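Lab notebook, design round three. We kept the backbone fixed and only want residue identities now. Task for the bench partner: fill in a sequence for the structure below.
Input structure tokens:
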């Protein structure tokens, strides 16, 4: 099976950066797809495999689209196009689209007309429809090499994982944090996923949920190895102390600040350049502008919030497309949530509470 693989943003970089990014993209394809033979041309990667790997290629960041295709020489093109159509006669109308690279004594339009005429002569029951054809026959001519295909399959897009360094991602297994993690991978980041286990304030289902979500994300990034740290003991102490002072409304603020502090220590261990969270502005009490400001002061490295401007429906749609949604909706509620969480926490008050803790 021969695949024509296209990339977009990689192509726009300088020659030095482009070569480095293409090399990383090929490495990532090999790790996700497995064995295969590769050939590179500017703007294109050619992959030869023993079988179809469409679903795997869809999960390689940096690929904008790809097409299973057949290869021939320019002097063989007429016969190959007719045979290609003969094997796919489940259509009534068609169009031919030609793209050329190199020096030729014909234009792309000339070749489209000539191939279209050949198809009509061979299959007179067909009709040309350039606006909404049942079937589009694509031909890419690069010098003397020709590639014929009728599918353009959308890839994950973005840039290759690994070209932008490492980040620690606080991942709960719920709907938001896996999507935020996926978006950072799409922008070239290696992910160090961190799960903070809040049992006994949640059920064992929470571990099952986050592990299933991690398995899905691992399909996009094979090095996705979940780090699990206990957070329940800390949360228990915080709950007891806040209750004694009638300040339970601060529970989520202190909980999330502690999570960031743990994530920062792990980031230092891995030489990571920031922390990723699934925060979306105003979605819950801990994600008001005031509270995000107070929570963010807990650490000194950058915090990336790719979902900050997304609404819930947008995030859910992305989760479904990624494949995490079905696992993220496994019930695993936090029982430490106060009845009336504070929405406008003051940093001075939080620091005073932490000092006494």
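Proposed sequence:
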């Amino acid at each position: 099976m021969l695949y024509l693989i296209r990339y977009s943003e990689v192509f726009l970089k300088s020659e030095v950066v482009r070569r480095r990014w293409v090399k990383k993209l090929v490495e990532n394809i090999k790790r996700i797809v497995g064995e295969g033979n590769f050939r590179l041309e500017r703007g294109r990667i050619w992959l030869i495999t023993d079988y179809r790997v469409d679903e795997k290629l869809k999960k390689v960041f940096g690929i904008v689209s790809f097409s299973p295709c057949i290869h021939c020489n320019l002097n063989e093109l007429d016969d190959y196009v007719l045979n290609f159509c003969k094997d796919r006669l489940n259509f009534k109308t068609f169009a031919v689209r030609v793209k050329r690279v190199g020096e030729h004594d014909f234009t792309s339009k000339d070749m489209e007309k000539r191939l279209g005429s050949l198809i009509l002569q061979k299959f007179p029951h067909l009709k040309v429809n350039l606006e909404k054809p049942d079937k589009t026959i694509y031909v890419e001519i690069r010098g003397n090499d020709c590639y014929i295909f009728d599918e353009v399959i959308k890839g994950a897009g973005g840039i290759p994982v690994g070209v932008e360094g490492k980040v620690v991602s606080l991942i709960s297994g719920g709907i938001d944090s896996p999507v935020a993690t996926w978006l950072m991978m799409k922008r070239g980041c290696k992910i160090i996923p961190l799960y903070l286990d809040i049992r006994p304030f949640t059920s064992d289902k929470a571990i099952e949920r986050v592990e299933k979500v991690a398995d899905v994300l691992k399909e996009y990034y094979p090095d996705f190895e979940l780090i699990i740290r206990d957070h329940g003991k800390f949360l228990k102490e915080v709950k007891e102390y806040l209750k004694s002072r009638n300040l339970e409304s601060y529970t989520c603020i202190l909980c999330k600040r502690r999570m960031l502090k743990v994530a920062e220590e792990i980031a230092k261990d891995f030489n990571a350049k920031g922390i990723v969270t699934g925060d979306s502005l105003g979605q819950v009490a801990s994600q008001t502008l005031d509270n995000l400001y107070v929570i963010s002061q807990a650490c000194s490295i950058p915090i990336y919030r790719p979902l900050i401007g997304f609404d819930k429906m947008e995030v859910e749609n992305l989760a479904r497309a990624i494949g995490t949604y079905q696992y993220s909706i496994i019930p695993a509620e936090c029982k430490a949530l106060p009845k009336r969480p504070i929405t406008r926490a003051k940093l001075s008050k939080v620091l005073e509470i932490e000092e006494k803790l």
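Keep this in mind before ordering anything: Residues 11 and 42 are 8 Å apart (CA to CA).
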